Structure formats: structure tokens, C-alpha cells
Amino acid sequence: MPSISPDGKRIYYLLRVGAARHFLRGELWVADLASGQRSRLLPDFLIQHYAISADGQRVVFVAADDTGRYPVWVTTLNGRSSPRHVTAKGASRAYFAAGGYVFFVSADMGPKFIYRVKEDGTELQKIMDTSSEFSVSPDGKWVVTQGSGDMAMAIMVHSVDGGSPTLICGTCVGGPHVERSGAPCVSWSPDGKFFYLYFREFIYAIPLSPGQMLPPIPPAGFRSQNDVAALPGATLIAEQEAFPGPNPSLYAFIKLATHRNIYWVSVP
């Protein structure tokens, strides 16, 4: 789950450790891209999901605690303050949004809901129910979710103020990709200038007009790569399965390597 800092100088990632029973949990680490120096952050926490604030100074994260719950925390990245508990509700993902808000999706048994809460834990509000993971726009006005049932490969965008959702694309995504797990199908650059769309293993960076959080979306959604590529200024990111950064020229991607051992045993 790599994430590039808004200034493009550092990369954050989760490192699996022996205590992590789940493939997508680990310790939060940071690497300086100029020097290559690496350091571990938040050594007391095993993290399932995290997001860096738009100013690059704070992190919101979902921790796996000893009780089997997944509470949401916020803290500074410089280590000068202790992590602050946002909510005890179990969560699977959490994001910052404008106005001092945190959005998270519940991980409790039963129906799942997207919530909005102030960073100090006040003003908890249920936004909508969901059957999937989600992402949220930097201004906190739009929530993106994946469909369900016959629309399982569709991506929808919902206004936090209510109303009918808008179809972004009916067949955006294919099957799950374990190395890209944790990356949303739709995301934004920290400054809100680019809209990133993961479309059938290809990622497009779409510049946004000032004050807009969504590109022009056709009434029936994007049906092909050509539809997306035809948007003014749309740029295809070179690496498939990439994790976009603060602009289309800076992104993270994963290279897989296989390690095998040859053994010798005596035969009776």
C-alpha cells in the first residue's frame, strides 16, 4: 500500500511482520526518496489502512488492536504528538477530508456504513450504506464506491448531500489484484488538481477545472479506454497497477520477484 507524500519527497508503505496474520496489515514505514534512508513510524501499532493528509503533516490510520477491533487514529508524522483516538467503531479504511473531517467505512459484522466524523471524535454522522470499500474527494463532498451484484464491476460516485449516484463506469474493474489491494479505483491528487481513474488495469490522470472534483462524465459512464483518453488533458500512467502520487509524473508501482530454494536430502 505505497503512498507518495504530497511534496513528492517521501514514500510511505506497510511492511508485513511476523505478528501480522493478515496479508494487508503491517508496520508503517517511510523512505526518503533522495537519500534512501528508511525509518519505522508508529511502532506500537499494526496498521490495516492509512492515508496521508493533504499538507503531508498527519496520518489517519486503522489499527488492528488486541480486542479484534479496528479503531481509527490520527497523529502527526513528525512524532511530536501522541496518536489520538478518533472513534472506537471498527473500520476498514479511513481518509482525511476538508474541514477537519475523517471519513471511514465500518468493518463491524452486518450492514456496512460510511461515516463522517471530526478529527477530535465529535459530530459522528452516518453518510450512507455501502457493500464495498470507498474513497472520498479532498473537499469531502463526494464518495466513490464499487457496485454489487450485477453491478459488481461498476464504480459509482455519490454526493454527500444526497441524491442519486452517478455511474462513472459500468465495467471499470476486473478481478481483485492482491498486490494492488488497498488502492481505490478512483482517487485524487492531494491538491485536488487531478482525478485518477483505474480503468481495466490502466490508470488515467485527468486534470480538473478549478473548483471541480469530477471530470465531465458521460450520461452512461465511461464505456471504453477511448472514452477516458478523449477527456481534455487525460494522461495514461505508464505502469499498470500503479499507485498515483501528487501529479501524473510521480507514482509508485510494485515489482514482483520470486525466491526459490534448492534442497539436498539423503535418500535411505
Describe the overall structure.
- By secondary structure, this protein is an all-beta fold.
- It has two domains: 1-130, TolB, C-terminal domain (Neuraminidase, 6 Propeller), CATH 2.120.10.30; 132-254, no CATH class.
- The protein has one helix and 22 strands.
- It has one helix at 225-229, and strands at 3-4, 10-15, 27-32, 38-41, 47-52, 58-63, 72-76, 84-87, 91-97, 101-106, 112-118, 125-130, 134-136, 142-146, 155-159, 166-169, 186-188, 194-199, 202-207, 235-236, 243-247, 250-252.
- The strands form six sheets. The chain has a four-stranded antiparallel beta sheet with strand order 1-2-3-4, with no helix packed on it. A four-stranded antiparallel beta sheet has the order 5-6-7-8, with no helix packed on it. A four-stranded antiparallel beta sheet has the order 9-10-11-12, with no helix packed on it.
- Strand 18 and strand 19 form a beta hairpin.
- It is globular.
- It starts with a strand and ends in a 16-residue tail after the last strand.
